[in-house]
Amino acid sequence: NAGVTQTPKFRVLKTGQSMTLLCAQDMNHEYMYWYRQDPGMGLRLIHYSVGEGTTAKGEVPDGYNVSRLKKQNFLLGLESAAPSQTSVYFCASRPMGGTDTQYFGPGTRLTVL
Amino acid sequence: GQSLEQPSEVTAVEGAIVQINCTYQTSGFYGLSWYQQHDGGAPTFLSYNALDGLEETGRFSSFLSRSDSYGYLLLQELQMKDSASYFCAPFQTGANNLFFGTGTRLTVIP
Q1: In DSSP terms, which residues pair with B34 in a beta bridge?
Q2: Close Cβ partners of A112 (under 8 Å, ≥ 6 residues apart)
Q3: By the number of CB atoms within 10 A of the CB, which of A99, B35, B43, B93 ranks highest?
Q4: Which of residues 23-52 of B touch A (CB under 8 A)?
Q5: Closest CA to B4 of B24, B29, B20
Q6: Cα separation of A41 and A86, whole Å?
């Protein structure tokens, strides 16, 4: 099992450009999450999904959109990137009823110039 | 509202014991998880408490007091590789997710 994978690992964007971050998990987990981590800020939840076709806003959703068309994939989109979105993005998943453990992907380091 | 308090930094000597405290305030609390994150890496699960008391996993133990909204992570026989950030994360039933604070940066010195 690959667990949770994220694509790409690194990306540099110019202000106003768009991009999509892909998260994939092969553990058949129902729940999937997107976090961002900034220095000194810990992990902040952007959006999450409780199942295929469903999404919900987290703590810092502005400027991001998500889609969960397939159970194993959770996409995070930036329509018009801003320097404030420079961060490390982590995807995570957990099974239904698994309140303790979230499994994290390796992260995507995004820089917006 | 929700809030978490952990010390921002802790330094301890190799071979010693260190305790990282966590106080929390969340809505719909279900349990408390602990995660470790090395620089440049992803958070990884360490321990979880749903009930009051101590949970032991090798050199790591975690404690929870629901009535005090308090928990701690105990690391024994510290090794240099334990230098990392440690996050306590209460599970919020209403939001179906973990709430992460800013974490505690542990530095283990020789």
Answers
A1: B47, B88
A2: A12, A13, A14, A15, A17, A81, A82, A83, A84, A85, A86
A3: B43
A4: 30-31, 33, 41-45, 48, 50
A5: B24
A6: 13
Contact B33 A31 (CB under 8 A): no
Test B87 with A99 for CB contact under 8 angstroms: no
Sign of CA dihedral A61, B30, B33, A49: negative
CB-CB contact of B82 with B34 (8 Å): no
How confident is residue B45, by pLDDT bands cut at 50, 70 and 90? very high
A27, pLDDT greater than 80 = yes
Q: How far is A76 from chain B (nearest CA, A)?
A: 18
List alpha helices for chain B, DSSP H: none
Partner residue facing B48 (CB), from A31, A58, A101: A101
In this prediction, residue B95 carries a pLDDT of: 66
Supply A16's token pair. Answer: 């106003």
In this structure, what token pair is assigned to residue B35?
Answer: 């995660």
> Among A35, A40, A102, whose Cβ lies nearest the Cβ of B102?
A40
On chain A, the residues whose CB falls within 8 A of the CB of B95 are 58
Contact A100 B42 (CB under 8 A): no
Instruction: Report whether A36 contacts A44 (CB < 8 A).
Output: yes
HEC profile of A9-38:
CEEEECCCCCEEEEEEECCCCCEEEEEEEE
pLDDT at residue A39, rounded to an integer: 84
Confidence (pLDDT) at A99: 65
